[in-house]
Amino acid sequence: MTKVDLNFVEGLTLEERADLVSGTDFWFTAKVSGMDPMLMTDGPSGLRKQVNVHSAMDQSIEAVCFPCSALTASSFDDQMLEKLGEQLGTAARAEKIGVLLGPGVNIKRSPLAGRNFEYFSEDPLLAGRMGTAYVKGVQSTGVGVSVKHFATNNREDQRFTNSSDVDERTLREIYLAQFERIVKQAHPATIMCSYNKLNGVQVSQNQRLLTNILRDEWGYQGLVMSDWGAVVDHTAAIKAGLDLEMPGKGDASKEEIIQAVKEGRLQESTLNRSALRVLEMAERYGHPKTPAPAYDMETQHEFARQLADDSIVLLKNENQELPLSDSAKLAVIGELAQKPRFEGGGSSHVNAHRVVTPKKAMPAHAVYAQGYRLDSDQADEQLTKAAMELAKNSDQVVFFAGFPEAMESEGFDKHSISLPANQNKLLEQLLTVNPHVVVVLQNGSAVEMPWEPKTPAIVETYLAGEAVGEATWDILSGQVNPSGKLSETFPKRLADNPTYPTFGKDRRHEVYREGILMGYRYYDAKQLAVRFPFGHGLSYTTFAYQNLTISENSDDVTVSFDLENTGSQAGKEVAQVYVANHASQTIMPIDELRDFVKVELQPGETKHLTLKLSRRAFAWYNSETETWEADNGQYEILVGSSSRDIRLRQEFELTIGTNPLGKITGETYVGELMENADERIKQIIAEMGLTATFDKFMSPELAPIFANIPLRSLTMADIDAETVHELLQKLNELD
Ligand code: BGC
Fold first, then answer.
1. Index of the ligand 1 atom closest to the CA of residue 159
2. Per the structure, how many domains does the chain have?
3. Does the Cβ of 49 fall within 6 Å of ligand 1?
């Protein structure tokens, strides 16, 4: 067996090394003497292994189609995501796939973004936790992953050329934090760089992102590959830290690199470094040391059903409309029951093993009517009439609604988040003849629901994978108690979203003007009513939260509370811990999700839960000092069932962080200094005989003016220049 190391690489010809840093074709790495090529395949919700390299995008081998990431994130269930990874890895091993191209972990910035179905959340902690679990699961089987799309690929229109213009703090806190967590905790085999530019620099040749942040700061050891066709200048890309161009451009790719080396534009050592990473990947994941685990598609189909069961979100359930009554005359209306949307379009499209439609899985006594056509948004008179007739003569109606495939896919963004007009219209009509309409949604991201106030029950199934029918009825019938929570906010109107005025408006620049105040961080700061908040999801049982205690240890903060199932059936709850920062002297969201746990409880059972928040849970990214800063001072811990259903809250004082003043300079204000003065500061002031003077400045009469004077201008307040200088010098020396 070849030993892959730098010596081995240096023993290869320049041609061979140049060959290695581009794919041989769409899916394979190059073959060089002593090392066979390695196969990679999409991801992320099932295998899309093309029948052969030249076959069309949708001609792939049969594989189990698991729920899309928008749904799996709604599980808030790390263990299930790890199991999903194991299932995918097992399937990949059976198909001799070395690297699975997923998960996609970009943040859902706008509900219009075409690929939201493939991404986890608007919140980086949730996206990071789900991604970490998924990656650990896949890689535990000996298959590598490619975490994509690094980074800020938050829109599809002009995705190859558009520049995501993001300020540094927003970049770090919102758009990179999930990648950082995954890299540090799950050590993904590869990272896939995105198509777009970041602040004007093509990501595939962005040294700051691909090397300085990813490798130097986060310590990433794996390989960086390009998204398919993302490389503009291959030499510049390799220099910046890209290792593998995908797919290759044939001989042209090789020639380009050979020329660059010969002309001295690319150092051989840089080429060797990337060639070595390709070989290491091919060796480790292309030639696994352990035997492939047992693989059975029916077992995987059953898991796809359980994962959907664990993730589907019960958005509304007035007067216990659900679970459906066994004895009720039941109407099932909507073409989506017969032709469900269960997966997204584009590279994640799977040739599903066995799709069970909601119509196929519906109870024997239910009666179906098509109601509307998916290929048009015009109402169909005959279909409407038949549906209305059926609704009139039924006790309950289950109405299947959603975005048709043509409206939502990789490759383009949406222009609206309304359901097609014919679906909205029919639903309004049905509600006039039967108030017991349960709406089941199939869509990739947030939907406007003008009819929500009139609708007693709404179930969000997103794109639920091939077991869509079984899982939907598991929830509707009550065979499974729902436990999913929204991983994104559903606004009342698209126009309420903070990116509404800017998203997709400029062909060349996508300007992230809303900064860190996006998703629930924005809606909460604005105190804006939303349709359904982040973290929301109901159960058929009820939960009570009690006895919150908070204690600070030398490295972290421990949050404990009791969670009780107060209803009459077993159920799972996602307890969410948010932090409200009142300490930092900068823009802070009202609250941020900092931890969560999913717990199963029998009726009457109570569990005592303990969660630990590290310093990072209290930190913000200070782009001036280029550090994560956790400021000492007042915080509040909020524990709840959703971001807007907080059951317990308690203030506490953080002392394990840093001083919120940061470095004290002449530009520090008197008010800031005195409000945050610790013993050391007070002592300096006392030693200089200035205590009475500062007390006077902060007296109720003078504080409104004096608190707003910077230290350097205290000469205006009868302190001589020398004393001001000495005071500043002493304060400055504090770390
Ligand atoms: C997508 C990637 C995908 C690749 C290979 C690209 O267009 O952006 O997510 O992995 O194609 O199919």
1. 8
2. 4
3. no
CATH of the domain at 236: 3.20.20.300
Considering the domain architecture, whether residues 371 and 471 belong to the same structural domain is answered as yes
* Catalytic hit among 19, 123, 227, 474: 227
Q: Domain span at residue 339?
A: 307-522
Question: What local confidence, expressed as pLDDT, does residue 566 receive?
Answer: 98
The residue whose CA is least distant from atom 12 of ligand 1 is 347
Please indicate, yes or no, whether residues 508 and 551 belong to a single structural domain of this protein. no
Strands 556-565 and 223-226: unpaired
For ligand 1, atom 11: residue with the closest CA: 228
Q: How far is the CA of 384 from the centre of ligand 1 (A)?
A: 40
- Extended beta strands in 215-254, E state: 223-226
Q: Does residue 26 have its Cβ closer than 6 Å to ligand 1?
A: no
Pocket test for ligand 1, best of 57, 100, 101 (most atoms within 8 A of CB): 101
Per-residue pLDDT tens for 317-361? 999 999 999 999 999 999 999 999 999 999 999 999 999 999 999
Amino acid at 706: F
Looking at the fold, whether 324 and 469 belong to one and the same domain comes out as: yes
Separation in Å, CA 91 to CA 183, 247, 294, 324, 420: 24, 23, 9, 36, 37
Q: Confirm whether 247 is domain-assigned.
A: yes
Task: Identify the CA nearest to 336 among candidates 220, 461, 447, 157.
Answer: 461
Residue 291 lies in a domain: no
Ligand 1 centroid to residue 212 C-alpha, Å:
25
Domain identity same for 497 and 628: no
Q: Are residues 112 and 59 in the same domain?
A: yes
Residue 238 lies in a domain: yes
What is residue 1's predicted lDDT score, i.e. its pLDDT?
A: 57
Residue 326 and residue 433 share a domain: yes
The residues, any chain, with a CB within 8 Å of residue 692's CB and separated by 6 or more, are: none
Residues 195 and 241 in one domain: yes
Q: Give 10-residue mean pLDDT values along the chain (735 residues).
A: 86 96 95 91 94 79 97 98 98 97 98 97 98 98 98 96 98 98 98 98 98 96 98 97 95 95 98 98 92 92 98 98 95 98 94 97 98 97 98 98 94 96 98 98 98 98 98 98 98 98 97 98 98 98 98 94 98 98 95 98 98 96 93 96 98 89 86 89 94 93 92 90 92 76
For the Cβ of 77 lying below 6 angstroms from any atom of ligand 1, the answer is no
Kindly state the greatest CA–CA separation across the chain.
91
Strands 62-63 and 351-352: parallel
How close is the Cα of 228 to the center of ligand 1, in Å?
A: 6
Q: Is 380 a catalytic residue?
A: no
| Cα 124 to Cα 137: distance, rounded to the nearest angstrom | 20
Ligand 1 geometric centre to CA of 323 (Å): 40
Atom of ligand 1 nearest to the CA of 26: 5
pLDDT at 50: 87
